Amino acid sequence: MGIELPRGSKLNPFSDVTELPEDFDGNVRLFPLPGLVMFPHAMQPLHIFEPRYVEMLRESLASDRLITLATLVEPVAAPTIPVPEVAPIVCVGKIISHAELEGDRHNILMVGVRRAKIRRELETTQSFRTAHVDLINDFYVPAATEKRGALKRRLLTAFGKIIPPKAGSHQALHDLMAGQMGVGPITDIIAYMMPFPTTDKLTLLEMNDVDGRAEHLIELIDRSDIDLQSVGMSEQEIGLQEESPHRPDDDSFPPPFSMN
Predict the structure, then answer these.
(1) Residue 252 lies in a domain
(2) Predicted TM-score (pTM) of this structure
(3) How deeply is 145 buried, as exposed, middle or buried, from its count of CB atoms within 10 A (0-12, 13-18, 19+)?
(4) Range of the domain at 218
């Protein structure tokens, strides 16, 4: 399996479809991928073609549309490890768009819904892996409520220093500062987009203290010396906006896809 890191990521305009079903019992379908750490509120295109994951996709589409994205731990495989290890912290995702192609190939667009921790993998007769997970709930320190607006501005200011100096991107940052989107979703989206080492991203994914997560992300940005323009991220690829007026349609779908 190979994977192309996310492109065209945007702030989640699908908040109305990212709630877990009321009967969610913690049992999930696992989709292990190398080099990808999915976050709530982020969107990830995927190209599905391997038979076991096509089976997983069909089951998901016929039921709750949920697939949990897991990060493969290096090394991806070894002769003594028949089942590649995955990081215990994962992201439950939901399929928000699907297009079936020739040859039983599929393009899907997923949005991250919730953090979770794998409690145990389940025995199954299916060709794909399944697990039971505990959801990780975001925690907001009550005493920090009055300071949270300033924290949001600090985070967006730090991010603004490393994005390409184009009017559109910086106007979007200004709109976010003035908008209603909270520091939690903004932190997750930026963490997902940044080309940090996988270990740093997994640390951010595991943190349920929203304020602490934002502070840690600011520290990572400040000490990283990353210039998103130098790593080839265009203004469109940064794609910052608080909301989108519509879902992807047939003309815009699929966006750039990662291969499973």
Answers:
(1) yes
(2) 0.81
(3) exposed
(4) 142-238
Average pLDDT for residues 45-72, to the nearest whole number? 97
Helix, strand, coil shares of the chain, percent, nearest 5, are 30, 25, 45
Pairwise CA distance, residues 260 & 252, whole Å:
21
Number of domains observed in the structure of the chain: 2
Residue 35 above 70 pLDDT? yes
Contact predicate 179/211, CB 8 Å: no
The domain that holds 116 is classified in CATH as 2.30.130.40
pLDDT attached to residue 169: 66
Buried/exposed code over 212-228 (b: 16+ C-beta within 10 A; e: otherwise): ebbbbbbebbeeeebeb
Q: Is the pLDDT of residue 235 over 70?
A: no
For the cut 50, the answer to whether the pLDDT of residue 160 exceeds it is yes
CA distance 15 to 247: 12
